[in-house]
Each structure stands twice: as C-alpha cells, then as structure tokens.
Amino acid sequence: MTAYDLGRHFACTMNDAFSHIFDQLLNAKQEENLSERDFARGLEQDFASAQADWLSLDQELLQGLSLDTYLETLNEDDFYLFFKGMAEQSDFPLPEIFEVKFSALPEAKQEVFLNDVLKLRPDLSDSDEHRLEEIFFLQQALHLLAIPNKVDLMEELIDWYLQGLQPDERVSDAVASYVKALPPELLDDLILILEREIKENPNSDRGLDRLLEGMVVLAKKSPDGRQKAYPVFRLAFRKFTNKQLVTICLGDLGTLSAVPLLRSYIEDHHETIDRSLYLEIISAIKRLGGSTEDLPRPFGQDLDLDDRLKFLFGLGGGA
Predict the structure, then answer these.
(1) Are 213 and 204 in contact (CB under 8 A)?
(2) Rounded distance, CA 233 to CA 247, Å?
(3) Nearest by Cα to 62 from 92, 90, 86
(4) Rounded Cα–Cα distance for residues 265 and 210 (Å)
(5) Burial class (CB in 10 A: 0-12, 13-18, 19+), 316
(6) For residue 86, how many C-alpha atoms fall within 13 Å in the half-sphere facing its CB?
(7) Cβ distance 140 to 87 under 8 Å?
(8) CA torsion through residues 42, 46, 47, 49, sign
(9) CB distance 273 to 266 below 8 Å
C-alpha cells in the first residue's frame, strides 16, 4: 500500500474513532448539570484530551506504531503523500505533529504543498466527490502553508485566489482562515498587496472582502496592527459596491477612526441606502462606541429593525 493510500485509510479510521469518542463524551456531558458555556468548554477540553490519547496509541494500520512514531519512519516524499491522503479524507483538523514535521522540511519540499494547491481551481465548480476532496486538501494544506514567514509564498497564494471572477465559497473560507493564521510579521506586506488589489479592481466578489475578514484577526496580533490596517479597510469601504462584509470588518477591527466614516455614509446616502447595509453600519458604529441617535432613520420607526437592534445591543429605544 502506498503512503497516499495508507493516509486515506488511516484518516477514515481516525474519523470513525473520533466520531465515536465525541458521541460518548456528549452523552456523558448531557448528564451533568452545567451552564451552556461550561458544557461547551468542558466538551471541547475533554474531546481534545481524548483525541490526544487515541493518537498516542499504537495503530495496527501503521505497522503497530503510534502516528508520531510512524511519521518519523517516512522520508520527505512519503510524508507528503501520507499527508495528502489524510487531508483528502479527514473530517477533523490533522494532528499538530503535521505542523512540526512540515516546519522541519526544507524549503523545496514545502513548495510541493504550495504547488499542488496552485493546481486547483479557486473558482466555482461542480460539487462532486473529487471536488470535495480537493477542498479538504486545500483546508489542511493552507493551514500548514500559513506557518512560513515568506512574503512570496503569501503573494503567490493570494494571486491564485484572486484569479477568477468569483471564488468557491469553501475556498474563500479556507483562504480567510489561512490569512488569520499568518505570522504577524507579514501584516505590512499583506496591507500593500490588498491596497494594490483594491485600487486596481475593487470588486469584492473576487474574494477581496474575505481577505479583509482574515486580516482583522491578523492585525490584532500586534500592538499597532489595527492602526496600520485601518486605511486599507477605509479604502475598501469607499471603493466596494458591496459594502456588507467590509462594514462588519470595520466594526470587528475596533478602530475608532471608522466611526465618522460610517456615520457620514448614512448621512450622505440615507435616501438610497439598502436596509441591511444600514443595519450593519449601525451595528458597527455601536460596537465601536459611537453614537447613532442623531442619524437619519430612512426606514422610519421600523419595529422589526428596532427589535433586532435591541437584541444586539440591549437598547431600550431607537437606533
């Protein structure tokens, strides 16, 4: 059996084991009298511990070795093939040992992971079984490719992602997670890349808004990251036709400079603004600590709108 086939088989074995473990833990936790938060937190911790215990066991499928020990027996090429087989079949994030092994690979071998990602189509395509395996592989490979502190690698991946008219939503999810996981040292270069892309083609449907979504998390990893990143979000808000997600990003970024930007948009466009965008802007302003009571209310005393705002912010009155 090839390393690739063995990886696929082992992933299926792991899927079955982890699903069984989770069901057992869930049933046991339901018998405890816990708050919703303590229930979720306890279940997560217990599941992670049980997964680690299972992975430490010797596995008949892996020549009677534990996963960590088995991976030590593989050469660099077979490690990649085993990873690819597992990635295509696993329903769960791959164990951390894959990050350790990937980080120890020479640059030329890490590029094998990148090259196979670049062969995939980022745009929409038929949702068949083969495409689903590609998405699974992409998610796991991008998680590893976020480890190296390499500008050229990041730029290659972003160029690949933006090449189509509209990326597959599952690809966008994976790329947003990739950006969130990047080392903070790459923030300045990512800012330059996105500023250039937004100026050249400010079509958020290309997936630019999902890159900005990921950059919110990346920017928060360094003390001055949010202030550095804010001008790109401001540029995107001004340039994008679809402002929905970038508005949410501005609220999540937490930079107070966004308050006058958002308020002025409502003041200037209250006669034509879309109701859902209006709600997102109001939400972002309030999360940033800004005032909205004096802003135009283009939808009048919209009770449904008021109810949604009260739910979000615990307000007693209007927006």
Answers:
(1) no
(2) 9
(3) 86
(4) 22
(5) exposed
(6) 23
(7) yes
(8) positive
(9) yes
The two three-digit tokens of residue 15, written as one number = 């899927």
How many other β-carbons are positioned within 10 Å of the β-carbon of residue 199? 10
**In the beta sheet, which residues pair with residue 120?**
none
By C-alpha distance, which of 61, 80, 79 is closest to 15?
A: 61
User: In the 8-state DSSP scheme, what is residue 163?
Assistant: T
Name every residue whose Cβ is closer than 8 Å to that of residue 183 and which is 6 or more positions away in sequence: 146, 147, 149
- Residue environment code for 267-287, b if the CB has 16+ CB neighbours within 10 A, otherwise e: eeeeeebeeebbbbbbbbbbb
Q: What CA–CA distance (Å, rounded) separates 209 from 203?
A: 9
Burial of 152 (0-12, 13-18, 19+ CB in 10 A): exposed
For residue 241, which amino acid is it? T
DSSP 61: G
List the chain pLDDT tens, one digit each, 319 residues: 899 999 999 999 999 999 999 999 988 877 777 788 888 888 899 999 999 999 999 999 999 999 999 999 999 999 999 999 999 999 999 999 999 999 999 999 999 999 999 999 898 666 667 888 999 999 999 999 999 999 999 999 999 999 877 888 999 999 999 999 999 999 999 999 999 999 998 887 889 999 999 999 999 999 999 999 999 999 999 999 999 999 999 999 999 999 999 999 999 999 999 999 999 999 999 999 999 888 888 887 554 555 555 555 544 333 4
Number of residues assigned to the chain: 319
The candidate with the shortest Cα–Cα distance to 180, out of 124, 120, 244, 225, is: 225
